[in-house]
Amino acid sequence: MATVENFTAWVHDFARTIAEHSEQLTDLDRAIGDGDHGSNMTRGTARCAQLTDEQTFTGPGDYLKKVGMTLVSTVGGASGPLYGTFFLRMATSLTEVDDVGPEQLGTALEAGVEGILTRGRAERGDATMYDALAPALESYRQAVADGADLAGALAAAAKAAAEGRDATTDMVARKGRASYLGDRSRGHLDPGAASATLLLESAARTLA
Ligand code: ADP
Ligand code: MG
């Protein structure tokens, strides 16, 4: 079962990992976008990591709602509202749930990914963060159906995200700034798919 302490650890781990990979994310974005994905995400996640110094949170829903609002207001770029919506939708799904089990986390992750789709209207194969998140969610669901616990399901999700991320290299970007390059976007790994993979890898380290 994941509690508010696990979710706090997730966001803190994500902030640390993003900071470590900031330059790499920026380099990916420089190749096909405007080179701000690392700095955007580092700024926003660092702000999120301060939240627990300022306030006590009663449960995962309460906490993730504040994380989502903070990301929307601090990350900027296309990715800010997308990641913000992901956490806000997860928060709504987990309202009043204190101990989050595999099924509930799956429902919350699905709500989060649906939120990204509603906002960004990406489809599979458009070379976005969705190409990491969609296979992650599928693998998570499959693992739970096969009887996996949180740790097993999250490990499967993180592995699928990394594979989905790597597959964006061969795609032509059809959403966001990278889509302005048309065919020239092929051959480059999508920065948002890279950060989304870091998010799931953090989840696998902290939520179980
Ligand atoms: P910006 O493109 O405004 O500079 P960032 O560089 O922070 O914003 O984020 C770029 C990432 O956002 C892309 O790599 C992609 O994964 C993601 N992205 C952009 N547009 C969309 C969209 N419509 N749907 C899903 N993800 C998107
Ligand atoms: Mg950018």
Element-level helix/strand string: HHHHHHHHH
General form: globular
Indicate the proportion of strand residues.
under 5%
The number of helical segments is: 9
CATH class: Mainly Alpha
Largest sheet, in brief, is: none
At the fold tier of CATH, the topology name is Serine Threonine Protein Phosphatase 5, Tetratricopeptide repeat
Mean pLDDT across every amino acid position: 98
**CATH homology superfamily:** DhaL domain
How does CATH name the architecture?
Alpha Horseshoe
Please, how many domains? Answer: 1
Going by helix content, strand content and strand pairing, the class is: mainly alpha
* Contiguous uncertain segments of 5+ residues: none
Brief characterization of the structure:
With 208 residues, the protein is mainly alpha-helical.
Give structural notes:
The protein is mainly α. The chain has one domain (4-206): DhaL domain (Serine Threonine Protein Phosphatase 5, Tetratricopeptide repeat), CATH 1.25.40. It is 70% helix and 0% strand. It has nine helices and no strands. The protein has helices at residues 4-20, 22-32, 37-54, 60-74, 79-93, 102-120, 130-145, 150-167, 191-206. Helix 1 (4-20) runs antiparallel to helix 3. The structure holds adenosine-5'-diphosphate and magnesium ion.
Strand and helix layout:
Blueprint: H1 4-20, H2 22-32, H3 37-54, H4 60-74, H5 79-93, H6 102-120, H7 130-145, H8 150-167, H9 191-206
Helix pairs in contact: 1-3, 1-4, 1-9, 2-3, 2-9, 3-4, 4-5, 5-6, 6-7, 7-8, 7-9, 8-9
The structure holds adenosine-5'-diphosphate and magnesium ion.
